[in-house]
Amino acid sequence: GSCGNMSRIKAIDHNSAHRIHSGQVVLDLQGAIKELVENSLDAGATTIDVRFKNQGLDSIEVLDNGSGIAEEDWPSIGLKHHTSKLPSLADLPHVTTFGFRGEALSSLCALCESITIVTSTKQTEPMGAVIHLGRDGKVIDSEGRIARPRGTTVTLNGLFVPLPVRRKEFERTIKREFPKALTMLQAYALVPAATVTKPGVRLKVETVASKGKRNVMLATDGRGSLRSSVISVWGPKALEGVLDLDLELQVSVDPVMARREGLDVQSQSVKVSGLISSASWGQGRSSTDRQFFYINQRPCDLKQVGRAINEVYKSYNTHQVPLAVLDFQLPPESIDINVSPDKRTIFLHSEANFIAALQLPFRETQTSPDVPNAVNEP
Ligand code: ADP
Ligand code: MG
Fold it and tell me: Which domain holds residue 211?
């Protein structure tokens, strides 16, 4: 019985617990789209189309030409902690895919009015299937035959409708939320250093107004050249006074850390590649809106690193900051991606040493006289 304020500890029912947790995995519009785009990249897509209907308030659609999802996997798509990317925990330090926790789609199922997936694999193309997922992540129904080249389309309808407070806030702040989502998509459009294993991606972002009028917000050519992606995102003028950066740093490793991790090294090499404005060219920016940082090609927040770079720049150009699109290639065992739900915060072993090692070579690039003619592509 009830006695005063004392109540017994009870388990939250499964559905409520799931909704509480999901609200932390995907916080906003940008977070929702990030998960879909990352899934497309993980599926090996080379073209990705993002479509916002009514700025994302009505629906968000991400189409790709990736691997598709095989029929035997449909029941697991929306199930929590179900992933095709992490065979065991031992593989976590070496994971090269964006996803590995299997929580995005299960969370999105709980956070949307409905989710529709159209998918086709190498085995089924040119035919595909339409799959409807319920709030609990289970397949409601699937229709087996629809024309669809290989790949997957995920449509989120009514984002946050199941959370009335957040939905209201989403509607109220859409004028800010939508540009934030575009900036996040720019980060994916600009991932530096396309490699054989990660080719260039043709990313197209469109808005569709209620009357069906389309507006292209962003489109890359998919050649995988960082300079051509910069042109796609900001136009050719953005490359004026911009240098190619290609450094290899030796970062000293904290001995305590090294012992703990069983590493027998005093220093680690870190490659830095990308583009940065030359201060001597006088082409800085008044805001950091053109600064994107990556670790092993994963977009991330590196505030300290950004600050260190801006500080060096400031000693040559007092009132501006550089355009900077930089990828830091680190040994996978010296980073931890699994820190924040959105994976944008990344723990770096020896971050202070890393920043110290970066400053001098960066200073040298800023004082080198041979600024290439930025308008001509290499
Ligand atoms: P994670 O990405 O961490 O594995 P998600 O919830 O984002 O978890 O996705 C669950 C699974 O659904 C993935 O592991 C993948 O197998 C499949 N999947 C999701 N989106 C796509 C896509 N666009 N193309 C192919 N498979 C996909
Ligand atoms: Mg994912």
Answer: 14-232
